[in-house]
Design a protein that fits this description.
498 residues; alpha/beta; 5-stranded parallel β-sheet; 18 strands; 16% strand; globular
């Protein structure tokens, strides 16, 4: 069951809340939790993780939202005690730092007269006026804060440009300026490499790799997500080139068809091929799917196109069982158009069953496709699937199956395809987008889909063959790892790195 506590007008920056979430997840009785400010962007994260409750949906951007999955409501009091202790501890630590507290810009600049950059980590609705003040005082801006309107962002960035100032963000969590890390950033060696990116995690990973390889980074400029299209446009203007340097673009400026469907479709192409290699046909099989986001919806759609019957879907509040097969059109209407909960599914399919909480994996099925979130398929779920005669579990989400559940499935003869191979369709289609850009072409949906299928079939064969080659036939976790390592090693040796 999901339990939600909304703390009105209680702000904490995202790093503190990530640390707090990690602490809460260690509590006995907590299956999973997420603590974030209730901004629209964070609600999307809750939604994709299957944790967006009605209370969280209704919360304001300035509210702190605590969502906990547990079997008993008794855990909520324990969680709130831990939250209170954590926040009190943060306050004590701030006091011990003995930093001068100021309440105005003039006081701050009097204390730090040489400061040339202001870092913002405040509720977005209050941030735009303060950013403007910082720019008026000649300060560069690093905005960790999000929830800033597009109009304010455009206006403030024009002002920054006119003043010759740098404005990173909004929603920028990572940056390196003249070798100095800002906000949520790894400490790496300074050097002669500059990076610009909208993904803080991506920047961190790239800078860490550069550091390990002996290089250094002088600047890492973090951008807001809205700037991808603009960056691509300026790249074309300055270089006179139309290359696939950025992916996930809008269709009007070089994006690819089938990108939304890619991960779900790709999952089924690999699943079908893996079953075939094991002498099993997907057509006619009963399939259970968890989740109701892009991956789940289009996994259900493709599975049914391939002749299987999908009987389940789920979201953060509960799950549906439709013995006649999930109505994809109804699911799209509920989730993509209405943005509603699965409780509405029975309005479309009266014979379906709706259940609160977890339970998808209790349904007898031939194939299980976890497509919701990480650590959603637990050891008890694995035991139930195996006992019910499940033939295969193929991961659509990132690491949805816990390690003990994975090992149990493998030991009990259930075919298991790890996400690093099975959910590669999205990344593959990004590569196809780059190919289209290089060729100055825009392929039809059918062309992209056909190429995606070929890629996923090839991934499947590489995984199967690598497992056999290294003495672990049938262990596709080993096979996927070995195939990936082998490809990298061969490339490195060919280039004289090893």
């Amino acid at each position: 069951m999901l339990f939600t506590v909304v703390k009105k007008n209680t702000y904490q920056d995202s790093i503190n809340l990530m640390l707090l979430t990690n602490r809460i997840n260690t509590l006995e009785g907590v299956k999973q939790s997420q603590i974030m400010m209730a901004t629209d962007a964070n609600k999307d994260i809750y939604r994709n993780a299957g944790l967006l409750t009605a209370e969280a949906e209704a919360a304001a951007p300035g509210d702190m939202c605590i969502v906990v999955e547990a079997d008993s409501e008794d855990i909520v009091d324990k969680v709130l005690e831990e939250v209170k202790a954590f926040l009190n501890d943060m306050s004590v630590k701030k006091e011990k730092q003995a930093l001068t507290s100021v309440t105005t810009w003039d006081e701050a600049l009097e204390q730090l007269p040489d400061a040339n950059m202001a870092l913002f980590s405040t509720p977005g609705e209050y941030t735009a006026p303060e950013i403007e003040t910082a720019l008026d005082k000649g300060l560069h801006v690093f905005s960790f804060s999000d929830n800033i309107s597009l109009e304010d962002e455009i206006r403030l960035k024009k002002k920054a440009h006119d003043k010759g100032l740098l404005f990173m963000g909004p929603d920028c969590g990572t940056g390196i300026i003249s070798g100095i890390p800002i906000a949520f950033t790894n400490v790496v060696k300074p050097g002669n490499i500059g990076i610009v990116g909208a993904s803080g995690t991506g920047i961190q990973e790239v800078t860490a790799i550069i550091d390990r390889l002996g290089g250094g980074v002088i600047h890492a400029i973090g951008t807001g997500g809205r700037e991808i299209g603009y960056m691509f446009g300026q790249y074309k203007r300055i270089r006179g080139l139309y290359e696939g340097v950025l992916t996930g673009k809008g269709l009007s400026y070089g994006g690819s068809l089938a990108r939304t469907e890619a991960t779900g479709y790709g999952l089924l192409y690999l699943t079908q091929e893996l079953l075939k290699l094991n002498g099993i046909e997907l057509a006619g099989k009963t399939v259970c799917v968890s989740g109701a986001g892009n991956v789940a919806i289009y996994a259900i759609e493709k599975a049914q196109q391939l002749g299987a019957k999908v009987v389940t879907a789920s979201d953060s509040t509960g799950w549906v069982y439709d013995p006649d097969g999930i109505d994809v059109a109804a699911l799209k209407e509920i989730k993509e158009v209405k943005r509603a909960r699965l409780t509405e599914y029975k309005n479309y399919r009266p014979n379906a069953e709706y259940h609160e909480g977890r339970g998808v994996w209790s349904v007898k099925c031939d194939v299980a496709l976890p497509c919701a979130t990480q650590n959603e398929l637990l050891i008890d779920d694995a035991k139930q699937l195996a006992a019910n005669g499940c033939l295969a579990v193929c991961e659509g989400a990132n690491m949805p199956t816990t390690m003990d559940a994975t090992e149990y499935l493998q030991k009990n003869g259930v075919i298991f395809a790890p996400g690093k191979a099975a959910n590669a369709g999205g990344v593959a289609t990004s590569a196809l987008e780059m190919s289209q850009n290089s060729e100055r072409l825009s392929w039809t949906f059918e062309e992209v889909d056909e190429k995606l299928q070929g890629i996923m079939v090839n991934i499947c064969h590489n995984m199967v063959n690598a497992a056999k080659k290294y003495g672990h036939e049938g262990n596709y976790v080993v096979g996927a790892n070995a195939a990936g390592f082998e490809k990298v090693a061969e490339a490195m040796m060919a280039q004289g790195i090893c």
